[in-house]
Amino acid sequence: MASQSLEESSFGTDRDGDHPDRTDEWEAMRAKYLRPSSERSASSARGVHHQALISSDVERTIGFYQDLLEWPLTELFENRDYPGSTHFFFDIGNGNRIAFFDFPGLGLGEYAEVLGGHHHLAVSVPKDNWDRLVAKLEAAGVETFLHETSCYFAGPDGERLEIISDPLGAMYDMDDV
Fold first, then answer.
1. Which long-range contacts link 144-150 to residues 24+ away (Cβ below 8 Å)?
2. Closest Cα partner for 90 from 128, 63, 108?
3. Residues 155 and 110: beta-carbon distance below 8 Å
4. Closest by alpha carbon to 161, among 139, 132, 128, 130?
């Protein structure tokens, strides 16, 4: 499948409504809440231990994440909270992991975007890896949506993902993130 630009795609726009100009609102929120980096306190967190998603097929998920995206499988064991469920992890760099559960027999539905739910996971990759991974996704027939330094696509169960060539901590060439 060919890549599409974000403007050409329906990625995330199935229920599109009005697109009001909120520039003034965003500026007011930045002025009220956003402190310059020199004035921010350190985070109480160390980083993402893992984000857990749900897999309908463990082997298919392993193939997608380990073979296609080149994120090594680091652990696989029985889920301690749901006997018979698999809990498995992939290395997404910098000590961070993405994890999956399968819930056999639970009869879960397909991915749905809901308030408070997962919208997408963005993983930073170096530009040379970004180019190679985008090419691999396209060669595998995964629909991709390209926008500047971002490539958006769906995983095997519809989970939304982004690989972004911006470095960790950088956002779209903004100076103070």
1. 144/1, 144/3, 144/4, 145/3, 145/4, 145/5, 145/6, 145/9, 145/11, 146/3, 146/4, 146/5, 146/6, 147/5, 147/6, 148/172, 150/6, 150/122
2. 63
3. no
4. 130
DSSP alpha helix (H) spans, 40-121: 58-62
pLDDT in tens, 93-105: 998 999 999 988 7
CA distances from 136 to 33, 66, 172 (A): 41, 12, 24
Adjacent-strand bridge partners of 15:
none
pLDDT digits (tens, 9 = 90+) for 18-43: 778 899 999 999 999 999 889 999 88
Q: Which two tokens stand for residue 55?
A: 């897999």
Q: Which helix (H) or strand (E) holds 147?
A: strand 144-147
